Amino acid sequence: MWSQAELLRLMDVRPVTAGRYHAPAHGPTERDVVEAGQLLGAAVVASAKQVPHQRVVSASMIFSRAAAHTAELAVTVDVLRAGRTFSSAQVQVHQHDSLCCAGVVLLDADPPDLIRSTAPMPEVDPPGRLRAHELPGTVVAGREIRVVGDAYTDDAAQLGPPELFVWTKFRDKPEQQYLDAALLTQSTTHWTVAAALRPHPGFGQSMAHRSISTGITMATITFHDDADVTRWLLYATRVIYAGRGHAHGTGRVYTEDGILVASYTVHAMVRGLDHPNTRSHPGSRPVL
């Protein structure tokens, strides 16, 4: 059983030396691959700790090699430029001295609004009208998930547009805002592959890592406002392209009252298992 506390333990990286952090191992799992969202969340936390006087605005990573749950991770943060207004950092995650993923993080001094406008929240059923989502492999103790239209399903015969609308809420409030951001980030990579497969007869997310090869290859998240993960958040994901072995999705995260707190893009691999260039990547379905 996975839990909110375990997700935070894995992403709340601990400093070792200057610019070097340690993420613990989770232990044996059915599929020994760390999710891309967890790695990106750890990068957000490490950057926030490395530049504590500024907030993380955006983080982007490329996932080039799968990381295992059964071994610890080494996270390095190299500050490329530390400024009074903006700072930038490069983050790398290694396991067994091999590079698993690398990316860049933007931080800023959090100035007040000069102007403000946002894209409107989609008109979807609120969480109170939806049943709890309890599909095996997605359950985390301390986290609720409710999917609009029950669209995240193992039933490959259920077709729909390439989009998913998912409400999430955690039970316990983290002690630091960057841990809220990490938990928010961890969920962003769950939905893109499932959304990409929805319009295509004979394909569904339950086939991932079994009869088709899928995985997240790149993800970017931008934080617009502070989020409270103990309140309902809507992840609105839409895939805008699928083909040539790839799928590309965009997403937004809203509070229940329509405040846009984050946006994200996710690029994924979607290929047959016998494709000659297929390699293992962090999976799209929550491996929790």
Automatic annotation (TrEMBL):
Domain Acyl-CoA thioesterase-like N-terminal HotDog: 36-104
Membrane spanning stretches: none
Domain Acyl-CoA thioesterase-like C-terminal: 140-265
PANTHER family linked to this entry: ACYL-COA THIOESTERASE, ACYL-COENZYME A THIOESTERASE 8
Keywords annotated in UniProt: Hydrolase
SUPFAM superfamilies: Thioesterase/thiol ester dehydrase-isomerase
Keyword set includes Hydrolase: yes
Family: Belongs to the C/M/P thioester hydrolase family.
Keyword Hydrolase: yes
InterPro entries from the UniProt entry: ACOT8-like_C, Acyl-CoA_hotdog, Acyl_CoA_thio, HotDog_dom_sf, TesB_ACOT8-like_N
Pfam family, one: 4HBT_3C
Name listed for the protein in its UniProt record: Acyl-CoA thioesterase
Domain of life: Bacteria
